[in-house]
Amino acid sequence: MNQKNSLGLNNCFLDKNDPLDLFEVWMNEAKKTEPNDPNAVALGTSDHNNSPSIRMVLLKDFNKDGFVFYTNLNSQKGNELKKNPKTAMCFHWKSLLRQVRINGAVKQVSNEVADEYYNTRGYESRIGAWASKQSSILNHRDELLNSIEEYKKKYDNQNEVPRPDHWSGWNLIPTSIEFWLDGDNRIHERLKYIKDEAGNWTKSLLSP
């Protein structure tokens, strides 16, 4: 018999007043069960015509202030986020039959935070941040490969590869977070947290 929380949901929803506390529990469980990249998340953006775009990115940090990922600031998503910071994320952990949906607006992380994460990356990844003009058209794959070799010559000391100004992180500051659990006959369980203007979270059950 499944245990229930105080709202009548599966006990995996717990009884947390702060959704970041629940997200941490779910993420830690996903790290144990997902075969690849439990931190992979679909990120939605939109352009100046309000045309949507979505792609997978990797969540690199999260805390009470939000959810952090890194990218080329001049990529399609980077340019779209500069013009419209409102965005959404969706995690899908198939092994757990769970989803988490997050809405909010992004803010660029500080140079200090970006530098700290950049310096944890492997040498090839740091070189790639210089060599790749993300989302731009390539006439031939060799253009990219040659660029990589050129930057390897420029930064041949693997311990001294500076972070490019065009590469940094975004922090999605959430205004709503929804937790979803697959249910029999599509009678799913959904719990949504919404942040008010005072910064307090309220939670509600949603119909499947």
Topology at a glance:
Blueprint (H helix, E strand, L loop, with lengths): L18 H15 L6 E7 L5 E7 L2 E3 L2 E7 L3 H8 L2 E8 L4 E11 L2 H8 L4 H9 L9 H14 L12 E15 L7 E7 L5 E6 L2
Antiparallel strand pairs: 1-2, 1-5, 3-4, 4-7, 5-6, 6-7, 7-8, 8-9
Helix pairs in contact: 4-5
Task: Report how far the terminal alpha carbons are from each other.
Answer: 21 Å
Oligomeric nature of the chains: single chain
What is the percentage of strand-forming residues? 25-35%
CATH class of the largest domain: Mainly Beta
Based on Cα principal axes, name the global outline: elongated
Class by helix and strand content? alpha+beta
CATH level-4 homologous superfamily of the largest domain:
Electron Transport, Fmn-binding Protein, Chain A
Poorly predicted runs are none
Largest sheet: 9 strands, antiparallel
Order of helices and strands: HEEEEHEEHHHEEE
Average of pLDDT: 95
CATH topology of the largest domain: Pnp Oxidase, Chain A
Contiguous helical run count: 5
Q: How many β-strands, per DSSP?
A: 9
Q: Give the total of domains.
A: 2
- How large is the radius of gyration? 20 Å
In brief:
By secondary structure, this protein is α+β, with helices and mostly antiparallel strands.
Tell me what the structure shows.
The chain is an alpha+beta fold. The protein has 2 domains: 11-115 and 169-206, Pnp Oxidase, Chain A, CATH 2.30.110; 120-162, no CATH class. 26% of the residues lie in helices and 34% in strands. It has 5 helices and 9 strands. It has helices at residues 19-33, 76-83, 111-118, 123-131, 141-154, and strands at 40-46, 52-58, 61-63, 66-72, 86-93, 98-108, 167-181, 189-195, 201-206. Strands 1, 2, 3, 4, 5, 6, 7, 8 and 9 form a 9-stranded antiparallel beta sheet that branches. Strand 3 (61-63) and strand 4 (66-72) form a beta hairpin. The longest helix has 15 residues, at 19-33. The chain is elongated and about 60 Å long. The mean pLDDT is 95.
